[in-house]
Amino acid sequence: MAEYGDVRTGRHCIFVLHAHLVFVTKFRHRVFTGSHLERMEEIMRDVCADFETELREFDGESNHVHLLVNFPPKIALSKLVNSLKGVSSRRMRQEFPELARHYYRANKLWSGSYFAGSVGGAPLSVLRQYIEQQNRPS
Q1: Residue limits of the Transposase IS200-like domain (predicted)?
Q2: Nearest to 61 by CA among 89, 99, 34
Q3: CA separation (Å) from 128 to 44, 114, 120, 121?
């Protein structure tokens, strides 16, 4: 796969796909410190690499994290999210046993829900105008 700036090419396609993901801790507990977030970023970068995805940006606070991922069209975003949340939850709880005290009932780090938003590209109004101006076959 070749890469030209943000434009990536696969075997049969050319693409630029970015998503903004937000994961919130279970019960919105404030559990992360700076060292937790540093390790979390490393774990999530590894998971992204396994999916042929790139973690472009990562940041967080005590009860949530933000990710900006660049991903190929063959990846189902929901599968990437499930892996990111599952692997990070398991590894963080193994490496930082003190996190377990916040989750004695649920034994999960993350809330079951998440935010995913598409990012980048032309504004919808520009795309709509472009599509409307295309010549239609007669």
Answers
A1: 14-134
A2: 34
A3: 35, 28, 15, 13
